[in-house]
Structures are given as structure tokens and as C-alpha cells.
UniProtKB/TrEMBL annotation:
SMART domains: C2
GO BP: any one term: calcium-ion regulated exocytosis
Origin species: Manacus vitellinus
Family label: Belongs to the synaptotagmin family.
Localization per Swiss-Prot or TrEMBL: Cytoplasmic vesicle, Secretory vesicle membrane
Domain (C2): residue spans on this chain: 171-292, 303-436
A cellular component term, taken from the record's GO annotations: transport vesicle membrane
Transmembrane domains' residue ranges: 6-27
Descriptive protein name: Synaptotagmin-6
Residues forming coiled coils: none
Broad class of the protein's primary localization: membrane
Length: 441
């Protein structure tokens, strides 16, 4: 009986061993390859998706910390094959959304002002070749206009927004006057007849007009009509006499300024009329009636006078000589009706004053004569970089000297100043003289 029992136990043990061996072989041959296949397929899916979205994710995130965090999450999925693919994908989507939200809250889009500043920065600071170790963005961010003020929506289409040039060309009514020259007494008679359709300057819708009369360039002799109350169509019918030789008439200009009288404040200027050619309508031997449009003006035009000087350049010596000859019809700056003028010449280079020189002072005159030479040493290669600023000054013993008027010559000057300079360069070693009108600073 004992041997039978022992044999039964051996049989059972051998059977269990065979079952264990069978199960081990089955696990080895079937279960392990299937698991490795599933794992490899999951990893291939993850790697393929990561490869497809790597560039777009880098462009969208632009954050090295977010990319490293995402790669770390993918590595965890590599070492944990028991995590299903659905969970890994949901984790990846969650990380991407979290990183995107964090970027939107920490890096707002820059404004247009900053974009324009960066656009000019390389030209100003020459930093285009600097490397900051950051990849440039693949797509430029377009700033939104939410919350921005758009000035064009608030532009008022009224008279306030009109072009200043058109404003200056507006007419302010008409004026009628006559001219006649007395050859025997050498006197020009100006008769102001009437004005028509003047603009209203008072609150009541009317004006109190009067007219000032000049025979330029002489501004010391001035006439004025009577003031006509509360009318836009005044009738003056007043005559004024200017003694002037006949040979000077061609160089004279008639200047009429129309004003609105104000008892308690500064008189308002309505407009002006300038007749440059007195012989335009007749020979002035008989009285001629003339109608002119009154041109809009806010301040009275002032003739500051003229200056005559010559320019001469010696290329071999690199010497520029400016000879101040004389001035005429300068503006009176003193209460005596005269000025104490002198001329100051400044050598400018790129807007900076390099040197300045002065003439002597001429006392109590509006037509000074100088004949004084001012010399500057300028190399020929620098002649296209310099210019001269000529200022006629009024000397004042007490206080600051006042500027009567200025003119400028050089390559970058305008009009006669540029032409005079080019003529000097075209004819070296030869003095070139011209009259130049003075303008305000």
C-alpha cells in the first residue's frame, strides 16, 4: 500500500511538472511576443505622432520648458507599457492645452508701436547680426485691434480739417480802388472806393472794416481809411498820395490790408491784396478802376528788405570769400524808424554751426553799405556738405540783438540760394553777386 501511495505521489508531481513546463512554454511562445508586439505598436504610434507634430508644436509653443516637459511625459509612457494608448494620448493633449493656455496668459502680443520700433532698430543700432540664441518665429503674430483707439473714426469733416493751402487760397470778398500817376508832381494817387462781401468777424454777424495802404518796399509811409461800423459792404471813397519818382514805379508794389476794428482787443485781419505790377492795367496816366479779390491772411505780410553779396571760391586754395556789399529797405526795428544793422555769416555743416563772422555796425539806417569780405577755408571735397546762413541783425546797446531777416545759400538751400551757390561753383575764381530777399527765421 505504501509503494502504491508513493507511486501515486510521484505521478502527481510529474504531472504538475509537465503542466508547469507546458504553461511556461505557452507563456514564452505566445504571451511574451504578443505583449512586445503591442508595446512596439504603441511606441510606434507615439513616436510617429510625436514626429509629425514636433515642428508644429515647437512653432506653437515657442517654449523650451514646455517641450522638455512634454518629452519627459513621453519617456514615462515608454517605460510604462501597462499604460493604455488612450490614456497616453489624453495626457499628451492635456499637456499641450495647459502649455498653450500658459503661453497666452504670460506672453501677450506686442503692440504696433513696438513692432514699428523693432523695424527701425537694426538701422539705428546695427544689431541685425547679433545672435540671441533664440529661433525666430515661423509666423509673425498679427496684433489685434481690440481695445485700440482708431483716430480715423473721430475725424471731424468740418472746415477745421481743410488743407492749409486751400485755406490760404480762400477769398474774403472784393475791393475796388483806382490808380493815377501825376507826372508833373511825381505822385501816385491811390483811391480806395469800396469793398464787397466781406466776412463777418463780430458776434452780431457784421464787421467794422478799414484798409491800410503801403507802397512797398517803403513801410514807413502808411495810410489808413476811416472805420465803417457794422457793414460787410463798406464804401470808403478816400484818396491817398505817395510821392515816388516815375523810374521807381516799376520796382514798387501796392499792398492793401483789410482789418476789422475792435475797440477792446487786437484788430482782426480780414485779408490782403498785393499788386506787384502797377502798370498791369494801364500806364497810370489816367485814373484806372481795379477790382481785386481779397486773399485770406491771418497776419500782415512784412517786407524785411534785401541784401546783396557776392560769392567767390578758389578750389586750389580751398578758400570761400563772401563779400557783403549792401542792404536796402530793411525793416525798422527802433522807435526812431531806423535800425542799427550788421550782418552775421555762419558756416553750417549738417545743421551744425562750425564758424561765424560779423561785419561792422551801421548806425541809424535802413540802407547800409558794407563792402566787407568774410573768408572761410573749406576743402573742395567738403563743398557739397556745407552751407552759409546770412543773418541781418539789429544791434541793441541794451538787451539782445534782434534778427531783421535771414537768407541761406548752399547745395541744400532753396531757390535763389541754391542757384547762386551752383553758379559760384560753375565759375571758380570769379565773384558772383546777387540780391537776396530776407525772410523770417
Amino acid at each position: 500500500e505504501l509503494s502504491v501511495s508513493l507511486l501515486a505521489v510521484i505521478v502527481i508531481v510529474c504531472g504538475l511538472a509537465l503542466v508547469a513546463v507546458f504553461l511556461f512554454l505557452f507563456w514564452k511562445l505566445c504571451w511574451v511576443p504578443w505583449r512586445n508586439k503591442a508595446l512596439s505598436s504603441n511606441l510606434a504610434v507615439l513616436r510617429g505622432e510625436a514626429g509629425c507634430h514636433k515642428d508644429s508644436m515647437a512653432d506653437k509653443l515657442k517654449d523650451t520648458g514646455a517641450i522638455s516637459f512634454l518629452e519627459a511625459a513621453v519617456k514615462i509612457s515608454h517605460t510604462s507599457p501597462d499604460i493604455p494608448a488612450e490614456v497616453q494620448m489624453s495626457m499628451k493633449d492635456h499637456i499641450m492645452r495647459r502649455t498653450r493656455i500658459q503661453r497666452q496668459t504670460t506672453e501677450p502680443a506686442s503692440s504696433t508701436r513696438h513692432i514699428s520700433f523693432k523695424r527701425h532698430l537694426p538701422r539705428q543700432m546695427h544689431v541685425s547680426s547679433m545672435d540671441y540664441g533664440m529661433d525666430p518665429p515661423a509666423v509673425a503674430e498679427q496684433p489685434t485691434s481690440i481695445g485700440r483707439i482708431k483716430p480715423e473714426l473721430y475725424t471731424q469733416k468740418t472746415l477745421d480739417t481743410e488743407d492749409p493751402k486751400k485755406e490760404a487760397e480762400k477769398t474774403c470778398g472784393k475791393i475796388n480802388f483806382t490808380l493815377k500817376y501825376d507826372y508833373e508832381n511825381e505822385t501816385l494817387t491811390v483811391r480806395i472806393l469800396r469793398a464787397f462781401d466781406l466776412p463777418a468777424k463780430d458776434f452780431c454777424g457784421s464787421s467794422d472794416p478799414y484798409v491800410k495802404i503801403y507802397l512797398l518796399p517803403d513801410r514807413k509811409r502808411k495810410f489808413q481809411t476811416r472805420v465803417h461800423r457794422k457793414t460787410l459792404n463798406p464804401t470808403f471813397d478816400e484818396s491817398f498820395h505817395f510821392p515816388v519818382p516815375h523810374e521807381e514805379l516799376a520796382g514798387r508794389k501796392l499792398h492793401l490790408s483789410v482789418f476789422d476794428f475792435d475797440r477792446f482787443s487786437r484788430h482782426d485781419m480780414i485779408g490782403e491784396v498785393i499788386l506787384e505790377n502797377l502798370f498791369e492795367d494801364s500806364d497810370l496816366s489816367r485814373e484806372t478802376s481795379i477790382w481785386r479779390d481779397i486773399q485770406y491772411a491771418t497776419t500782415e505780410s512784412v517786407d524785411l528788405g534785401e541784401i546783396m553779396f557776392s560769392l567767390c571760391y578758389l578750389p586750389t586754395a580751398g578758400r570761400l570769400t563772401l563779400t557783403v556789399i549792401k542792404c536796402r529797405n530793411l525793416k525798422a526795428m527802433d522807435i526812431t524808424g531806423y535800425s542799427d544793422p550788421y550782418v552775421k555769416v555762419s558756416l553750417l555743416c549738417d545743421g551744425r554751426r562750425l564758424k561765424k563772422k560779423k561785419t561792422t555796425i551801421k548806425k541809424n539806417t535802413l540802407n547800409p553799405t558794407y563792402n566787407e569780405a568774410i573768408i572761410f577755408d573749406i576743402p573742395p571735397e567738403n563743398m557739397d556738405q556745407v552751407s552759409l546762413l546770412i543773418s541781418v541783425m539789429d544791434y541793441d546797446r541794451v538787451g539782445h540783438n534782434e534778427i531783421i531777416g535771414v537768407c541761406r545759400v548752399g547745395v541744400n538751400a532753396e531757390g535763389l540760394g541754391r542757384d547762386h551757390w551752383n553758379e559760384m561753383l560753375a565759375y571758380p575764381r570769379k565773384p558772383i553777386a546777387h540780391w537776396h530777399p530776407l525772410v523770417e527765421v
